[in-house]
Amino acid sequence: MSDSLSKKQIEELLPHREPMLLLDELINIKKLRSATAIVNVTKESFFVQGHFPGQPVMPGVLIVEAFGQAAAALTAHGLDKSTYENKLVFLMNIEKARFRNPVIPKCKLELNIEAVRSHGRVWKYKGDAFVNDVKMADALWSATIVDRK
123, 115 in Cβ contact below 8 A? Predict the structure, then answer.
């Protein structure tokens, strides 16, 4: 398995599409354990247009969404395709999310995520978000793998 995924490869694993596919790349992949997701936050990013005009900020809920997408891509990439085919990964809960600094365009947001544990179809993850080595946010969340209807 490759140790990185392009946006096109991520699209093969996740149901998300533009504009909601937030990830541009997944790098430093350690199978079913950890990875770093890259989100290029630009002045053209869909959420920048109205949040907030004149002083754009990436919404915290979208940072959490990006964490979730990164975790889903990490998990899907590590599982056997027959296990993951016709499945979706849904966010179950967010135990803790802290937003330390505003994420403003033009930047490269790096999300370091780690699978903390799994029990059946339920996975627990933690993540830290950085821009230029400055921590922007961190979170602890759970997701589940369900059958696609």
Answer: yes
